[in-house]
Specification:
about 280 residues; alpha/beta; 6-stranded mixed β-sheet; 8 helices
Amino acid sequence: MKHLYFPSCQIGDFLVTALSDGAMPASLDLLSGIDISEAEAIQQSAGLAEPGHIHINCYLIRGKGRILLVDTGTGGRNNVGGQLRANLAALEICPDDVDAVVLTHCHPDHIGGLLDAEGNPVYRQAELHLHPLEADYWRDDEKQTGANERGKLNFRLARQTLEAYASSLRFFTGGEITAGILPVWLPGHTPGHTGFRIDADDKSLLIWGDIVHYPHIQSVQPTASILFDVDPVQAEQTRKNVLKLAAREKLLIAGMHLDQTGFATLSRVDDGGPTSYALTAQG
């Protein structure tokens, strides 16, 4: 059997492992607040072979007798991604071993793996955790009615998923999800977009969800926004705040759209221009 390597880091009592779900095509035309030529140049300088693709990561957290999964990828919907289940199996973890799925938010590339082809829960033994504002948003009839056709499909999937997990649904209250793992509200991309922080004596990790979709572009130019942001102004401010925090506190970052290395650090670039950051892979 081919040996598979999964980037991991030990943060205190928790082993955090990045699991790729694959990638999805996403044109740089989705960006605003930056010239496409500049975005292309940044991607080229970062050495990206496929500058118009967005990688999809999920994170497995093991420790203190718990097995938690942060997001579930696409589930292979529309023939995109869908590698998470195979990667869990390579670690000898089956869906029923997972006791909690914690969601950054409810876009399809984060919740698509929660339901099987028949619409039944994949993670039958797991509680499903998310921000209450996230559930409120996707359950809002007015917002669903006003969405475009693609948006309506996203609302339908989110509602179907929340209904399927209704008996195991738990909302963040501001306290720890489990001892040592704290949800961090990061609004803008969606109303309930949430990250997760783990602190230990020697280092701290922030799983920041979709703070960036194009990591190199949006760390160099934090004003660049993506079409998927529900509130682009709030998302930009949240991104600037988090980038500043991560650089100042020397946080280890995990992100759903970092590359397959899964982890990175940030440092501020002092070149006399607008505030920007250099992202360094740590996987």
